[in-house]
Amino acid sequence: MTATTASESTATEGTLTVPGATLHYRLAGSGPVLLLSQSGEGDADRTVDLVPHLTDTFTVVTYDRRGLSRSTLDDPARPVTMADHADDIALLLAEAARITGTDGTGGAAPEPALMAGFSMGAAIGLQVLARHPGVLGTLIAHEPVMPNLLPPADRDEHVAELRAIQAAHATGGAMAAFPAIARHLGIDPRHDTTEEGLTPQPMTPRRVANFDFFIGTEFTAVTTDGLDPAELAAAARRSGTRVLPATGRTTRPDVHTYRCALALAGLLGTEPVAFPGGHNGNTAFPRATARTLKALLGR
Q1: InterPro entries attached here (predicted)?
Q2: pLDDT at residue 110, rounded to an integer
């Protein structure tokens, strides 16, 4: 591991070597550790507008998933799995606990971390719950991309949509896939609203490369994932992790990820919580999202 202090007085950037990859991460703030796991092609920079509204309450961990931006793969030809992503988070949280002194080395019990996962990040969080019980104290799973949560017919429809997006991407690249992704997530760019003053996020070559990896590689990780809902429910009971399924207030109820969140709530016998905006509300409404996170996760 290497770490360097960033220009912000409370921010630290570093790299962590994990099996098969090297992860780039960022820590900012103070308080309980809260890991934000992004959706889609999102790397640590996609939460630049959200993190500053959380650092007065939490030590916020953001990172680039393996294969995105600054997180490199030892063997780019090797498939990336959901299990890989979950194991990465467990190791990253252990490193964050070491840096913040909450790993139990001083005699106290290690503190379970908080995690808010969005879309792909939410599905990864559910994998962490199943593979690494006790690592998370609370998990917010916002509209997880997890077809296995749905009944068979809906699951097959969800998988077929994802594979159709992959086919469009294989033919015409990321730009050809964007309209299909927007339809899949219930996003209408013509009527998209956001908070004011957001940091521009142009479609740079790095973001296009991240989309290529997300669609070409990580969609396959999602559609071939074998995590069973019954196993997930049992893991939640055993671990004692508080799981909060979440939906966007403006997401259409027929969107598959919205239905996955409802299915997760039904599986766990709880009610979903509502977040501002739609599927990408955490980037479109960062201030409101921060208020919601603080209300749900506050000390």
Answers
A1: AB_hydrolase_fold
A2: 75
